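Data availability excerpt. The first of two example chains:
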Amino acid sequence: MNQRRNRDARPPRRIGLMSEFGRFAPGRVFLAILAGALSGCLYALAIPLILTAVRGPDAGLAFAGEEVRMVLGFEVSNARLAAFFAVFCVCIMITRAAASILVARVSMDLSADLRDRLCQRIVQSGYPQLEALGQAKLTVAVTDDVRRIIGGAEVMPQLLINGVMLVGIFGFLWYINTQVFLFVLGAVVFGVVTFHIPLLFANRHFHRARQLYDTLEKAVRGLVLGIKELQLDRNKRDGYFGQILQPCAKELLVAEKRAMTIMLGANSYGDLLFFFAIGAIAFVFVNYHEISSTDLLAVVMVLLYITGPIAIILNTLPRMSMASVSLRKIEEILGKLPEQMEAERPLTRREWHAISFAGIGYQHRSDKAHDGFTVGPLDFSIRKGEVTFIVGGNGSGKSTLCKMMSLHYPTTTGRILFDDQVVDADCIDDYRQDIATVFSDFYLFDRLLSPIDDVKLEAANRYLRELAIDHKVQIKDGLFSTTDLSDGQRKRLALVVSFVDDKELYLLDEWAADQDPVFKRVFYTEILRDLKAQGKAVVVVSHDDRYFHVADQLLIMEDGNIVEKRYRDAVPHVAGAQAVDATLA
């Protein structure tokens, strides 16, 4: 338990857009590349085909009157070439659509797969790593980052089609005039180099904006969860907006504006690059090199045709840049979430009667200035059919101890034994199946996630009646009719879920804190008694000293250590407790 086996931790696999697509659907990706390349070739051949039709053997279509035919009520010159051109256009449409559709469908499948793998990695990772990363980073990674990666992947067919088109067009330009080809090639090289200089600055701002998204997500979450407190105090509300929310939002806006401004300015420069080249050829190049008017017209037409693919390529670069930044963020998160298991092992039912905690301890993460808070070493046992209370002030280590007992925190010292079996990587998941918890920061799902049959459904409805929330919540097809309840009612519903799960160890952290006096009495005098009678091991974190006499074992914590243990015969029945119970009854 205190040491993870090295074979269970694998180094994070570096991922890229093309590698992910190739891994996920190699056949479809190959077809998409093939269709995109074919579409690009056909686009490139469109220019010589049109020039052939315009020039013709008789110097133009105006002299092709003998070949005029009526097609669908229209006069069509050079009908054979026109028919070929129509088929040619249909082929371009089909290949381009095929490439885009294939990649779009693969990207949607990959999106679902990537989210699933991220969620699986989160589930398999240790709870301390998740706490260190924080909810905001994980949420943004699973939602926004995956969406941006797929958005970048979706433009790859356009890059491929237009890239192949440019290669073909430059080949045709070389065929027309070698000197013009070299001049235009030099202009392209110059344009690419000068375009990438501002692109580097834009990527820095995109990276900064991505970092600020995590902070903004955390700030918005604080606004939503803390709305009750903020509405009650205008100074707090103004302070939250002025010190937390608005500075982050403004900084994010500035970073995004700078990135997009630089990127769009560079795109405009790239769009006009070939117009500059056309002007240079038309007004300067012709003075130094011999070129016919026919070839000059063809060159100008080719360069005008090139501006479209160049604009498409440049417009896709911002999405590719953002996808690259998001991909690096996901790689970073995956690197901090090592898998605990190569594959889920089959569960083994393990019988036990007592849990021994032998010198267990846990140290929280430390920063450069301070060592992390340490709990332990602690020695105690809990047994089935007994109720154990854990008490202590704030910061005494109760919550940390509970997370060690629930096997969420790996112990840094000592051992946990279920009877004589030491908890290790081979059996930890088996023993986790026997634990039910209601932490103080519990999450209430909107349904019963475990398999449910008529017996369990009947039991759940009975628990709803006994806890007096059946008038608020009904269960249909495993779904709760509502979870919009008060804090006390939500805890009661969470307790119902744990009863339906029917575990062996119940760990209830401050469950009675949000209950009214009547339900406190029901909890301490009836619910705990019933769990004990069923042979369950029960651990309760509590401050209700008038009910300490219910415990078979009382553990008193202070500064991360158990300073006192009391057992049933030594736990005093607080004076007046019987009178209080009688009054409530």
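And the second chain:
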Amino acid sequence: MGEMMMGSPDNELVKAYAAEGSETAFRALVARHVDLVYATAMRQVGDAGVAEEVAQNVFMALARKAPRLGGMETLGGWLHRTAIFEAKARIRAELRRRRREETAAELVAMQREGASPLAAMIPLLDEGLLSLRDGDRLALVLRFLEERSLREVGTVLGVDEDAARKRISRALERLTRFFRQRGLTIPGDANSAALLADVAMAAPAGVATACANAGLTMGGAATGLNLALFKLMTLTKTQTLVLCAVVALAPLAWQWQAAAGVAREQAEARAQRASAGGMAMELENNLRQTRASVERMKAETATNELRLAELNTQIEGRAPAPVYQWDDASPVVRVPKQLLGMIPVAAVSSPRGQLSEQIKEVLQLTDAETQRVQEALDRFKAEYNAAQAVKIKRVEPSEQDLRGGKPEETRVFEVPAIGDKMGEMRQALFGELEATLGTERFQGFRSALEDWMPVDDEERGINSGMGVFNFDHRMIFRQPQPGSQTIKASLSRPNGQWMSEPTKLEDIPEIFRAQLQDWITIAQTKPAKN
């Protein structure tokens, strides 16, 4: 059973944990992705202990959000992004400042010593990955950080092996361009690939177990098994320690041998440092002098700027404009627009297309702008529903649709793609949005719509937040229990992709409501008391 779990796709493991509270499924997910999460955290924080804490927090978040992640074929991209955000939240401002200074000094030293240029790229790697589109970033994460084959990458992306290779090549070009824009001279895309392959790191022994236990203790599986799982782990703590000891003994001999080799290398390195002590001391003195010169220049520059400001004030006859400073009491702060584009913000809060409060705040929409944007989205959704309504038809459920359910409790609809009509409606929508928001804010809003609708003709798969589709699929609904207030809806594609989650009654698309009205009434009915 454990081997079957390890070989199952991520979405099946997530569903098994979210629906059944399967501890085996969750531990299989941790074992599969812990190296990726730990290595990403380690690149961000540079400390093994803190990286382990970040990894545990990431898998705790996975446990809490499992019911909403069942539609993802693989969790690699989501875990990579979550690990970066968790690590950045963990690092305090002073630690980041000190690490930047230390990194700058290390880069100067590496340049003098002729070190590999790839070492200078590592601090910017995850920032570069976050700058890519979700599909490109997922392709690189799967291929290099999780070391998947081209066939596996193609399966996750829904394309063949040759298309997957091209997608990876394009993503490497964009990553290389990112490094060049930041002043790093990169000879070619092969160096970006080498860097990605080089930074892959296995998590230390025990991290996977700690992450799994943390997630299972704090997770939010919908079945309410959190307390039972916690008690179960408490009762079997001795068994867990024995198992960890047995696993640790297996590689013990290899670790001793590796430790001896490391000790020999350290002795050789100490001898080389001793022989080069005079040169190192001279370089260190030069570095101190350079730093002192830089500090003097900074002080002189600050003094000159202050004098210039005073002269300008005298000339203009007015006080200088106040300088913006961080206000701990304020609910908002200013951030660079480039950084704002890297923060994932959803444009809508439901499949119906209701504007989210976050996008209103980020784009600083006025009440009038909010009304015009919402009206444009409502018109687009109404035209989309009308285009689908003429093609949709109800069919008998297949064995794959039933998945163990009863035919009389299952209703299935075939929904063909609306084709070129989507491009026409999308162009009209984007024209209205750009006229209302302006070009710059429209570009940010367009990116925020990617999880709700196809913003271009590129294939991005499916997710639980989508409300607009332009591909052939089947919608499967299950009969609800009285008082449930939701109906379980599933989406199935011919390529095998499957997404299933409870749908609120108000979020059921209008094109299905007429044929589901009796079930909607059941879901709204109060359950009978025993």
